[in-house]
Request: fold
Amino acid sequence: MQPLNVPAVERIVILTGAGVSAESGLATFRDSDGLWEKHDPMQIATPEAFERDPALVYRFYNARRNQLQGVNPNAAHRALAQLQQEFSGDVFLVTQNVDNLHERGGSNQVCHMHGELNSVLCRACHATQRVFEDYDGQSICPRCGASGKLRPDIVWFGEIPYHMEAIGARLSGCDLFIAVGTSGVVYPAAGFVQEALLGGAHTIEINRELSAVTGYFHHQRHGSATVEVVALVAELLAG
Ligand code: APR
Reply:
């Protein structure tokens, strides 16, 4: 394993993808047993797909949300939470994941750029609500009372991710950018490493294999998230 030897780190940005939750039993999207191997994303995860077949989309996201009750955060989630609590500088955690395992792993700040399974969005009043029960095309918005206007609060293909301004500010000001368990094929997240590099940051990739953007990272740590994230956090906290 390459020694960290990164000069004074005060501001860290961490980007996570589906790979950080894989060892908790949640499928990733593009691995051999991934969600997009079983479902056509253009039939499930676009506004057009929702218009075309809302029942299919409700079923898909209700099933993924219910699955969360049967899984638990893993050592990588917990280590990142520990880094947030114990690191002397600033740690900003942005995730592409829509699961709640970072929060259940103890993270007190999680920026969900692609939305959350435990949230619904009303297309009438545009309010978002926490949700823990199945919902569908008959469900009532608890805020405005509109019926049949609730949709998954998920950023679908062709939609603009959440919190992009805040994320951009963190990327351009960080000393260290770490990407964990993401394939680097979906933008804008796949471009974060370049934004961090432009700001002069050191960059580290943790992934079981090469990603589409591995070449942009100063350091690659190829291995499972539960091993490599724990080791890197220990090094960062050891200073
Ligand atoms: N440890 C480390 N890395 C892992 C592990 C693991 N245990 N398991 C899988 N990986 C890596 C894979 O090698 C792959 O590079 O995690 C990555 C998962 O890639 P994707 O399935 O493409 O998931 P992600 O990059 O998060 O997808 C980005 O695409 O479908 C959209 O909106 C969705 O947020 C998602 C976005």
